[in-house]
Write a structure and sequence with these properties.
The complex is a heterodimer of chains A (485) and B (479). Chain A is mainly beta and 485 residues long. Chain A folds into five domains: 2-115, Immunoglobulin-like; 120-211, Carboxypeptidase-like, regulatory domain (Immunoglobulin-like); 224-304, Sandwich (Immunoglobulin-like), CATH 2.60.40; 311-393, no CATH class; 397-481, Sandwich (Immunoglobulin-like), CATH 2.60.40. Classes of the chains: A mainly beta (485), B mainly beta (479).
């Protein structure tokens, strides 16, 4: 019996050694060379390699070992808070890595991955004499349209601030509106001394970089007072009235019945008023309005209107997973999340993203405003009675081909595809034979490019990409030459 | 013409009774004007005039008009800066008084220095900064108290500013890393025991950098329990440790709190018409029951004519102080009490009625564990002691001389139990009244405070008994 077990063990070991290998390596900090413990590492098979994605965490010394790896082509991908996602063999931070082959032996080489920090912005909020203003809020916005509030912080005791963990890109920095020690009002002010967005000086940050000395000098000016009546539900009901601007939000009234309200220190510009509550019978009510404010107003009226359940209809194809939704307010957006079966779009502005599949999104229609397609998101306004129609088509188009360099196919070559108009992007890889396939596309015009060192934030994408027009239900075959560094 | 003569006469009369005090407030590092700084003109004892206060303009300039003749001190205050005084040898030291006569005065410039700060990094075992990690700062002197908190940035770096000069202990919070690894609160530089902590000393204007905390792995615990309350809804349960507080339940009933660091834990329940506090030692996964019961206002006996001043003293640091109105209830738990009875009395003790002995006061505060139906006994004495005298230098009285007084324990004189600061009047006379019996040290100087060991060595030691009226001449200490 014991002999049989030993024989079985030997056979199993031989079998594993013939069919599986080991991938190992270490994750290091690019700046210091120190190991990065507890980093998430994923071994991702290329198209055509019959294997699942294998996630592991590095140990206390930053090392990792993935055993029982099936032969094939793979990419190693590392993620960690505060660092740019990194791939083995990438030419520089933020670029796609090189695929590698795992053969039928135990050793597949040792992978040393150097991770770069996410960019940061530091600076100072200064008063009219150049003295740092302590404990003053600072906001950061994406500079690319649509401009969105993406974070905030507060200056320290010297008036200095730091906003880290940014994606590489271009940003706008802005101090908040408020009052100085003597109650002098100051406007929310963009870098360096601009009240208007058009005069703001954008800041571009690249992987591993910290942009220093981004000073903001708040501009003095008159802030506004808004007042009116909050028509909350009668007794037993309860509602809140929240004012939202692009520098934050505050609850300005809450309760039952007709409640006068007044709010001071309001920056001129767009202001959202959001009402949420329940009526006397426990049913949800709410309302939303956005107003351009350029003077004091005393006649505002905000009611809590009965809400009807949101209706979302999807036709033309079947989704394998729920649509993803997020709410957009002037002060930022909620986390994107799968829409729950009982979830309602509260009055305001929302965006949805349809999971990709072997279909494409023909249209998204809201009953309040037409939906706007930007990137992978479709945005629309909602009210107390919101109906959204999503029209899918199973006659999606696709683009396929082979990526070569010097006449040779490139295994694992990165492919970037962007739809003209919406700017929606797709990313993929070629299989070990250099073939790619991008499916689920709407008919239209696309820009496509393949390369290991493309500056997608800069101009290389638009300069070097090739244009392809697809038609409904068809596959366009297009050979690509790898763009060399 | 007649009108102009009358105006001139009015101006002359006005000029005979009041003057102007003006000047500018500057930042010491940059010499840049400090706009909107609070400036206060305080008369010395003996000068009959009100305290005047204003904000400097946007150029840091201020002007007090109609100042009555006499001797004054000029102070400036601003967020992030140490209080400035006109004529101080350097920021942090007492300023010099000046006389306002019936004529315009010179410009009075005050140079302000930033308060102190500590910067550093919280690192893992590979010296990689840990982002978004809590940081706590404690006073190093006993009793150790948490006085500030912060959070590391994306690089694991932190900065705690607006600190008074002194010695501090810096400590990271506890929590979980990306995997199942848990870290216990760790002191600078190493270790989890306060005895292993390396104190950090900061002076005004200084930033003490490179305070690197090497975090220590260890077990965090699970605290389960039950909150018993008359009504289930609206009962908030707060978990308090010496590294902070968090809400762990919003209704009565069972609760679970995970990631609790080892050590003392306070559980504070607050609901409609009820409150409860329980303090337990967590050294493993434990169960705790917290009763939220009706709370009544303190029943005060003894000397009840004085206003009771109270503040919470939870594990995460002292709360704001406030006068306790008669009939107002207090949430149970650890609190501190004091009274300020004026010069004719001194505070002997505040204690829970029935306790055999009162707690030892710290800076005049008595720490008590308050129940839901507290009975407090306040004891004053109508027979306080006093110290007075004249401050001289080379036998000449020093007008407005700063005088420092500390109550000390003769067995450990390094530690002051309570401190007072005063000023001599225009004749150099000073007086401290309403003092409890004890051993005091006393000194006057423009160049040092009791923080300086030299000042402590040169100070006069005075033993006061109940009702003593001691006259102690003081020679001003110079370096």
């Amino acid at each position: 019996m014991r002999k049989l077990a030993l024989v079985l063990l030997a056979v199993t070991a031989i079998s594993i050694s013939a069919q599986a290998a080991v991938v190992e390596g270490v994750i290091l900090d690019e700046e210091t060379g120190n190991p990065l413990a507890r980093t998430q590492v994923s071994l991702i098979p290329l198209p055509g390699t019959q294997a699942d994605v294998t996630p592991v965490r590095t140990g206390a010394r930053g090392s990792f070992v993935i055993i029982s790896v099936r032969p094939g082509w793979y990419i190693l991908h590392a993620t960690r808070r505060g660092y740019l996602p990194t791939e083995s063999g990438q030419l520089r931070p933020g670029r796609p890595g090189r695929a590698f082959e795992v053969a039928d032996d135990h050793a597949s080489g040792f992978h040393e991955i150097h991770m770069s920090r996410l960019p940061a912005v530091t600076g100072t909020v200064l008063d009219e004499n150049g003295i740092g203003m302590p404990r003053w809020p600072v906001h950061i916005y994406s500079a690319n349209k649509p401009i969105r509030h993406i974070g905030q912080t507060e200056t320290d005791d010297r008036g200095n601030y730091r906003i880290g963990e940014l994606d590489p890109g271009t940003y706008l920095l802005r101090s908040a509106e408020g009052h100085l020690e003597d109650d002098t009002p100051v406007f929310a002010t963009y870098t360096r001394e601009a009240v208007e967005l058009a005069r703001a000086v954008p800041v571009t940050v690249r992987p591993g970089e910290t942009a220093h000395n981004i000073t903001i000098r708040p501009v003095k000016g008159r802030l506004l007072t808004l007042s009116g009546i909050f028509l909350a539900p009668p007794r037993e009901g309860w509602a809140t009235l929240t004012m939202i601007t692009d520098t934050g939000r505050r609850e300005i009234s809450a309760g039952s019945g007709d409640i006068p309200f007044s709010v001071t220190g309001v920056q001129p510009g767009a202001v959202e008023f959001l009402v949420k509550g329940t009526d006397a019978t426990g049913n949800e009510c709410g309302s939303y309005v956005v107003l351009p404010i350029d003077k004091d107003i005393t006649t505002l009226r905000h009611a809590c209107n009965p809400l009807r359940k949101t209706s979302v209809s999807i036709s033309g194809a079947t989704l394998k997973s729920p649509i993803v939704v997020r709410r957009i307010d002037l002060d930022g957006m909620t986390d994107a999340h799968p829409m729950g079966p009982d979830e309602n779009f509260a009055p305001g502005h929302w965006e949805i993203s349809v999971p990709r599949g072997d279909y494409y999104v023909q249209s998204v229609r809201g009953n309040i405003t037409p939906a706007v397609h930007m990137g992978e998101w479709w945005g629309f306004d909602t009210s107390s009675d919101t109906r959204v129609g999503i029209q899918l088509s199973s006659r999606a188009s696709s683009i396929s081909g082979v990526v070569t360099t010097g006449g040779n196919p490139v295994a694992g070559a990165p492919i970037f595809l962007t739809q003209e108009g919406s700017g929606e992007t797709w990313a993929g890889r070629t299989d070990p034979q250099g073939n790619y396939m991008m499916g689920g596309l709407a008919p239209g015009t696309y820009n496509i490019i393949s390369g290991f060192d493309l500056d997608l934030l800069g101009g290389s994408f638009t300069r070097k990409a090739e244009k392809i027009t697809t038609s409904e239900g068809n596959t366009t075959v297009h050979a690509l030459e790898l763009i060399l560094p | 013409m007649r009108f102009e003569r009358i105006l001139l006469l009015v101006l002359l009369v006005a000029g005979g009774h009041a003057a102007t005090v003006q000047g500018v407030i500057l930042d010491e590092e940059t010499q840049i004007p400090l706009a909107r700084t609070r400036v206060t003109l305080t008369p010395l004892p003996g000068t009959v005039a009100p305290i005047l206060s204003m904000l400097a303009n946007e150029r840091g300039q201020y002007t007090f008009a109609d100042v009555k003749p006499g001797w004054y001190l000029l102070r400036s205050s601003r967020v992030g800066y140490a209080t400035g005084e006109y004529g101080q040898a350097r920021p942090g030291l007492p300023g010099t008084p000046f006389e306002v006569a019936n004529e315009p005065t010179d410009s009075h410039q005050i140079v302000m220095r930033h308060k102190a700060a500590i910067t550093g990094t919280v690192v893992d075992d590979n010296a990689i900064g840990i982002p978004g990690w809590p940081i706590n700062v404690y006073t190093a002197r006993q009793p150790i108290r948490r006085i500030a908190q912060g959070m590391t940035d994306d690089r694991g770096d932190f900065r705690i500013g607006e600190l008074d000069p002194g010695t501090y202990i810096v400590r990271s919070g506890g929590g979980g890393l990306e995997d199942a690894t848990t870290l216990v609160p760790s002191y600078y530089k190493y270790g989890t025991a306060v005895s292993s902590a390396e104190p950090v000393r900061v002076r005004l204007g200084e930033t003490q950098a490179f305070v690197v905390i090497h975090t220590v792995e260890g077990n965090l615990f699970e605290l389960t329990g039950d909150v018993i309350a008359p009504e289930k809804r609206g009962v908030k349960l707060t978990l308090i440790t010496d590294t902070g507080r968090r809400n762990v339940a919003t209704n009565a009933g069972p609760f679970v709190a995970t990631g609790v660091p080892p050590g003392e834990v306070g559980l504070l329940a607050e609901g409609p018409g009820c409150a409860g506090y329980k303090q337990i030692l967590v050294d493993r996964n434990v169960f705790a029951r917290v009763d939220c019961t009706p709370v009544s206002a303190p029943f005060v006996t003894g000397d009840t004519d004085v206003q009771l001043i109270a503040r919470r003293l939870d594990l995460d640091g002292p709360g704001p102080e406030g006068v306790l109105p008669a009939g107002q209830s207090l949430t149970p738990g650890p609190l501190e009490f004091t009274v300020r009875p004026g010069p004719s009395h001194y505070l002997v003790s505040i204690q829970n009625d029935g306790d055999t002995s009162p707690p030892t006061p710290v800076d005049g505060w008595f720490a008590l564990d308050l129940s839901n139906a507290p009975h407090l006994r306040v004891t004053l004495s109508a027979n306080p002691a006093s110290i007075s005298g004249i401050v001289t230098s080379a036998s000449q009285p020093i007008i407005g001389a700063p005088v420092f007084l500390e109550l000390i324990n003769p067995d450990s004189p390094e530690l002051a139990l309570q401190s007072w600061t005063g000023r001599a009047d225009a004749q150099g006379n000073f007086s401290f009244t309403g003092l409890a019996p004890g051993t005091y040290r006393l000194m006057s100087s423009y160049e040092m405070t009791f923080d300086d060991p030299l000042a402590r060595s040169k100070a006069a030691n005075v033993a006061l008994h109940e009702g003593d009226t001691v006259t102690e001449p003081l020679e001003m200490i110079r370096q």
